[in-house]
Automatic annotation (TrEMBL):
Entry's transmembrane regions: 23-42
Protein's organism: Halolamina salina
Lineage, top ranks: Archaea, Methanobacteriati, Methanobacteriota, Stenosarchaea group, Halobacteria
Positions of region (Disordered): 345-365
PANTHER family reported in the protein's UniProt record: BIFUNCTIONAL OLIGORIBONUCLEASE AND PAP PHOSPHATASE NRNA (PTHR47618)
Annotated DDH domain residues: 62-184
Molecular function in Gene Ontology: 3'(2'),5'-bisphosphate nucleotidase activity
Name of the protein in its database record: Bifunctional oligoribonuclease/PAP phosphatase NrnA
DHHA1 domain: residues covered: 276-374
Length: 381
């Protein structure tokens, strides 16, 4: 009886299909669309590290491009991405424009023995496929505006995107945290400093050099996890800990300081102009522009000061470096507003940290620029 019932149901179903072909076709289309959407959602929800790994695996070579004059966070993120690329069969070349002058940045490069290349022209990029790291719009070399990156990994605000992959997390304190998270996403394991990576049973590994670099990159961009650090930065730092070489970390963190840097810090403190809890200091002309952000780091520690901008000139360019621990002041936007309307300028950054450059021959006067900075800090620009 049951078999007869099944047969009768099949006959009725066949008759319905024959009699309502349009309805059946529509139902099939809806089901197919549902399957496609479900698969797309599953693909979209995969961890970003997995998606980035697959994007890299589709390339034979990539140029991992840092921003001009790269800092530890940029270098750390770049070598982490290069390591991930190597493990999926993609040949990476880490590149940058500008110079590495800051003693902390030089120590980072030298202690970790980084193989990174400087470029001056777009033709020197090592591959057509470019990954932008710690910035989202190419800059700093001739032809930069013609570069269309295939991927962007960054934590700075901006409009730049990658043609295939974009991961910009402005709530993270460091780009290195994003890259450390990628290795967690793909099941990567840190390699302790006294262990060879061949002894680690994992498809993806993060050698001690990269672990050390990524941890220092996080510490450097968050002032040792005290400024602008999100929970993700703490988690990333913890995940890297097993692979960190403490001796290398100490050597990077405590490099020798030049006499000029100490002099610039002293000039910034002694020559500061203060309005309320805001301070602006003009340190004049100097040969090492990297001393300017170091002076800003020093000035923000003064009692009663909640936001600072240090101004200095090198080779015809006025450099601005700002720090804020005041919720009323978004330093990146404050510097953008301060230089708005001045030709050939660039400025921006985070709530707690920002920088900018102004051609010396474009500023009306240094006094006018300082007044504009104070107005911007006050929210009057």
């Amino acid at each position: 009886m049951q078999a007869a019932g099944y047969a009768d149901a099949l006959v009725r179903a066949e008759q319905f299909v024959r009699g309502n072909p349009e309805l059946v076709a529509g139902a099939v289309a809806v089901v197919a669309l549902g399957v496609i959407v479900a698969l797309a959602l599953l693909r979209y929800r995969r961890p970003m590290g997995v998606r980035f790994k697959e994007a890299l695996a589709d390339r034979e070579q990539v140029a991992v491009l840092m921003h001009p004059d790269p800092d530890p966070d940029a270098m750390a993120a770049a070598i982490g991405i290069a390591r991930l690329a190597e493990q999926v069969g993609c040949e990476p070349t880490v590149q940058f424009s500008g110079q590495i002058r800051h003693q902390e940045n030089r120590a980072f490069r030298n202690v970790l023995d980084l193989d990174i290349e400087g470029i001056d022209h777009v033709s020197e990029l090592a591959a057509e496929s470019v990954v932008l790291v710690d910035h989202n719009q190419p800059r700093g070399f001739e032809g930069a505006d013609g570069v269309l990156p295939f991927a962007v990994v960054d934590h700075h605000p901006g409009e730049g995107t990658g043609d295939e992959f974009t991961d910009v997390r402005t709530d993270y304190g460091a780009c290195a945290s994003i890259v450390a998270e990628y290795f967690d996403d793909v099941g990567g394991k840190p390699v302790p400093p006294d262990v060879h990576e061949s002894e680690v049973d994992a498809r993806f590994t993060l050698p001690s050099r990269e672990c050390t670099g990524l941890l220092y990159g996080i510490l450097a961009d968050t002032r040792h996890l005290t400024t602008g650090a999100a929970a993700a930065d703490f988690n990333a730092a913890a995940s890297l800990a097993p692979g960190v070489d403490e001796d290398s970390l100490d050597r990077i963190a405590n490099p020798q300081v030049s006499g000029e840097t100490l002099d610039v810090k002293a000039r910034a403190i002694a020559g500061r102009q203060v309005e309320g809890s805001f301070a602006v200091s003009d340190v004049g002309t100097l040969s090492n522009a990297d001393a300017i952000p170091q002076a800003a780091d020093e000035l923000i520690t003064l009692e009663g000061i909640t936001a600072v901008v240090v101004v200095g000139e090198r080779d015809g360019t006025v450099h601005l470096s700002g720090r804020s621990r005041d919720d009323r002041v978004h330093m990146g936007r404050a510097l953008e507003n301060a230089v708005e309307g001045i030709q050939d300028t660039s400025a921006g950054g985070h709530a707690r940290m920002g920088g900018g450059q102004v051609p010396a021959d474009e500023e009306k006067s240094r006094e006018d620029l300082i007044e504009r900075i104070f107005d911007s800090l006050e929210g009057d620009v």
